[in-house]
Specification:
The complex is a heterodimer of chains A (327) and B (568). Chain A has 327 residues and is mainly alpha-helical. Helices cover 67% and strands 0% of the residues of chain A. Chain A has one domain. The chains are: A mainly alpha (327), B alpha+beta (568). The complex binds protoporphyrin IX containing FE (HEM).
Chain lengths: 327, 568
Amino acid sequence: MTNETLALYANLAVYSAMAVFTVAMIAFASDLAGAAPASLASASGAQKAAALVGAGPSATGPAPLVPGEDPAPRRRKAAGIAMVLTGLGGLLLIAAAAMRGLSVHRAPLGNMFEFALVGSMFVVLVFIAISLRRDVRWLGLFVVGPVLLTLGLAITVFYTDASELLPSLKSVWLVIHVTVATFSVALFTIAFSVVILHLVKTWLEVQDPLSMSRLKTVVNAALPPSRSLDRTAYGIHAVAFPLWTFTLIAGAIWAEQAWGHYWNWDPKEVWTFVIWVIYAAYLHARATTGWSARSANYLAIVGFGAILVNYMVVNVFFVGQHSYSGM
Amino acid sequence: MTQNRMDTRPDESDVTQPRLGTVGMLRWAWRQLTSMRTALFLLLLLAIGAVPGSIWPQRNIDAGRVADYLARHRSTGPWLDRLGFFDVYSSPWFAAIYLLLFVSLVGCVVPRSKIHWRAMRAQPPPAPQHLERLPEHGQVEVDGTPEEALAVAREVLRGRGLASRLRPGGRYRLRSEGLSLSAESGYLRESGNLLFHTALIVVIIAIAVGHLFGWRGDRILVTGKSFANTISAYDTFDPGPWVDTEGLSPFTVAVDRLDVTFEERSTGAQRGAPRDFTAYTRTQASPDAPRVSQILKVNGPLKFGGTSVFLLGNGYAPVITVRDGAGRVLMHEATPFLPQDANYKSVGAIKVTSASPKQLGLFGFFLPSEYIDEASGPSSFFPGLKNPALALGVYEGELYPQGRPQSVYTLSTEKMAQLKNSKGDPLRLLLRPGQSTQLPGGRGSVTFDGVQRWAGLSIRYDPGKALALGGAVAALAGLIASLMIRRRRVFIRVRPLQGRTVVSIGGLAKGEDPGLGSILEDLLTTIAQLSDTKPSRTESSRTESSRTESSRTESSRNGSSETESSRN
Ligand code: HEM
């Protein structure tokens, strides 16, 4: 039983969210463009109560991710608007996912369109959650951009009509396993954006500020210091990895119930495992002497590449028991 | 990476240069194998090695697709096969990677556990002279003497009896030396990390147990029939090397009915997609146990002790009666046909061994919703029974030349000839339920009585399952501890300054620790607050305060007691 009207409203909500995110993206971009080099004051360690002074690069204490709370903070009206719009877009995505789920009387986690929808929703919600604790307005563009791209693909290429599930998917483990998987992919996505920004920033940091092009100057000024970017990326990965580990375990439990064996080297299982191993290697690389943060971050990029393969290639092209992409 | 890292694992930088001689070489090789760098390399190799198995078909999953691939790629196929690309997960090179990783893991966990065990009972190292050289540091001036300030610092670091906001960063283990304090917290980080790696070893062992002692059998069971759990009852049986095949648990399963639902409402790609499979079974755990009715569903296996019965497939079994020229029944049976596509176009063979003078074989398709496709002939447009039909060709001759075994779903036509109709074309029967047809030349008749369903049962026994799950859950718990807990060292030195006291603090963390700075800051603030608000303490005031119930004075008594132990 599906309710087509509700499914239609869900799609309308997705389109509206896309419109809102487009405006948010423009606002984030114009905010970044306004990051004048002058505003890049040193981090605000001086304001601290006890005279805690730092030596070495990690001296800034509780990681102020803001590139400077300088005496005359630049006005960031555009960023404010962008954040509000991002929140609104997030609400629309929640509505879309809820209506999609109601239209088929199940969790909206049954095909590629629904994964993309719920994944985008999680990305936006995680971003907003982080922004409640720290200033991450510099990241907005690099979160809303990928979300917009994903939603665009979801509603066109990956679109699948609302329908019921295959018998093997009718299980509470679907909700547990796929929800956590989608949530950790959302975290990996944000971490990936930060890793890329880290690469850009390290590249810019070694250049002579006086001979930089206008674009480079603006980007350099808009981004937090590379060390802080790296730390943020690591922090998000450190949350995402245990969640992915859980995804792997929950998937094995479910496979045991549905197919009789907890591990069968089905293509989807293989890639879940490959992703897990790559990110384990990333965490190792960070703890191994002789590996710089940068080379470890290349592993994180490879890991995200594997996530994309797992989602887009394995679901559609590989033959396996997980062939339920609906395509 | 901070230069002042706190390492509790054997550092690979102290790898000794290989001395001449076998022992030296072996030791060197062992050090290399168990280094973090090798672990990293092997992990990446494992990731790369696992990928081909998702690209090329695998024998253990779908042998048919492998054969198909080999038939289509005559030049590259055999090479890939030799390299193990169709059995990746049981190939020697894949085994080499994970065995090396396993050895590396053991070789890494054991010495680290020893070191951690010692570290857990050792005192923190003495405070360095120059706290300002540590990555995080600070200082504050307080009232009172250095001894008093130190006592307050001790209380705060021990955290006992303090409100949680007054013990930043948790509890620390202390070491006092003169006018300095060393404190360490977060030992559970390393414990968690070791738990994680040890649990991975447990998981690998559990998988091995499953391989050695586990088995799997498959059986196609037509509704109305039953089967007992013995090797001979299986269509295929795949035991691990150490399985006692005589000692299988003696249960029986009968499938009375199988309900199958397909998507009918949708008109798009989802039309005909399976929606529900339910088998109504009667089971007996052993020959003298009572019979129970149980429902078997795709996500709901039947369990008999450690053995589980899964419903993995289903299909149709047309019931066919073959009579000879005199009308005597040669065969009356429901024969399972194997579905070939999503609409259950199914193939099967009916072998009439008792026909004479020549044996008869019927081979062809069962179509649950039959229509004639211009290009491919008889086809099915829906997986449910909307227009069931049998399309068969008839052969006569020798069914089993030289008694060779063959698949029950195909006919070996080597020694058989196809019957022709009156026009000389190959004879094709198209039968609907209830219909009967005469074979030419007085050979008898074929009747299509009706359709039954069959359930594809997969029966599995894996004694390593629970251990694997336990290991995986322990690994997850260890991982969370390892990633969330911070291992920190905090050092405090006090010195007098014009009747007041300067408290200096310095801190050091293992790995990334963005919170260290603010924790030191909070520690310092708390020490300053407690020192400044406290009336200067003497012997008498201490005894007095021991009768007071306020948490602060309570803990200050603890802090200044002389029985301070560095282990708590
Ligand atoms: C099956 C293979 C392995 C996997 C999946 C794996 C996974 C992991 C993961 C996810 C971490 C991150 C936890 C953290 O950062 O605290 C970690 C840390 C660590 N692993 Fe492994 N590991 C494996 C094998 C090894 C081996 C063979 C060694 C021995 C050289 C090793 C040594 C370490 C050490 C020392 C850490 C702690 C890093 C730190 O926190 O400073 N691991 N491992």
